[in-house]
């Protein structure tokens, strides 16, 4: 069985995969600046720096190449990981991914995102705003704790640097299966953005649209993620 690694998105940690891990065997990792890797966060850190650090983590684990499932910001990181370190990645599952091009976000939205760091009330509001389905209390509390724990530098680097980066020029040589799982009801990264900036750039990618979930699909609809990963492993 090809090993599977799970990569979280902005502001969260490997804990976002808790409900998926109840049914799937995988290595869930923390990106630099978040979760247990919070102290490794750096001012202005780029998607490339996150991808290269992730490559180091996977090489240390030593079981690759990996099937990589990545959520939101992690999707952008995973794309660059596959492009820069192709020996580590056999397949990509992008879940509500940030696009490889600059993510559409107005200045007010970027300012609001920056201001949420370290603010429990703002984090509560942020996660309510980007979800559609209710999230179990334990998991919602973990989201907020992850936001409080994240590196201030890494947190600001995403709206200021990483989300603005255009890595699309580095992805033209990607030759591996890509599946994109997204929600038609996502309030954070619109389905139009997914179609125009992700799916349109990878003509062979498989699109798996959902209805009724918000942005945090691993917590809102974990069975959709489980079903996808299990089905692809059987093929």
Measured distance between first and last alpha carbons: 11 Å
Shape: globular
Indicate the CATH class.
Alpha Beta
CATH topology call: Rossmann fold
Domain AB hydrolase-1: 4-227
Keywords: Hydrolase
GO molecular function: hydrolase activity
Protein name: Alpha/beta hydrolase fold
Structure overview:
The structure is a single chain. By secondary structure, the protein is of the alpha/beta class. The chain has one domain: Alpha/Beta hydrolase fold, catalytic domain (Rossmann fold), CATH 3.40.50.1820. The protein has ten helices and six strands; from the N terminus they run βαβαβαβααααβαβαα. The chain has a six-stranded parallel beta sheet, with helices on both faces. Helix 3 links the parallel strand 3 and strand 4. Helix 2 crosses helix 3, helix 4 packs antiparallel against helix 7 (152-160) and helix 5 packs across helix 6.
Task: Write out key terms for the chains shown.
235 residues, alpha/beta, Rossmann fold, six-stranded parallel sheet, 10 helices, 41% helix, globular
Compact summary:
With 235 residues, this protein is of the alpha/beta class. Helices cover 41% and strands 13% of the residues.
């Amino acid at each position: 069985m090809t090993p599977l690694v799970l990569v979280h998105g902005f502001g969260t940690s490997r804990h976002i995969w808790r409900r998926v891990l109840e049914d799937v065997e995988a290595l869930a990792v923390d990106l630099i600046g978040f979760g247990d890797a919070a102290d490794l966060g750096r001012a202005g850190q780029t998607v490339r720096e996150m991808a290269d650090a992730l490559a180091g983590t996977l090489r240390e684990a030593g079981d690759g190449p990996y099937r990589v499932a990545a959520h939101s910001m992690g999707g952008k990181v995973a794309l660059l990981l596959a492009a820069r370190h192709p020996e580590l990645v056999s397949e990509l599952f992008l879940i509500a991914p940030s696009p490889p091009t600059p993510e559409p976000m107005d200045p007010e939205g970027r300012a609001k995102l920056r201001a949420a760091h370290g603010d429990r009330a703002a984090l509560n509001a942020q996660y309510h705003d980007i979800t559609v389905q209710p999230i179990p209390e334990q998991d919602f509390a973990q989201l907020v704790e992850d936001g409080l724990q994240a590196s201030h530098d890494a947190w600001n680097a995403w709206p200021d640097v990483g989300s603005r980066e255009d890595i699309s020029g580095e992805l033209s040589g990607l030759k591996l299966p890509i599946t994109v799982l997204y929600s038609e009801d996502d309030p954070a990264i619109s389905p139009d953005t997914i179609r125009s900036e992700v799916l349109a750039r990878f003509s062979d990618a498989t699109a798996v649209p959902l209805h009724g979930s918000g942005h945090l699909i691993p917590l809102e609809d974990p069975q959709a993620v489980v079903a996808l990963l299990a089905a692809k492993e059987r093929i």
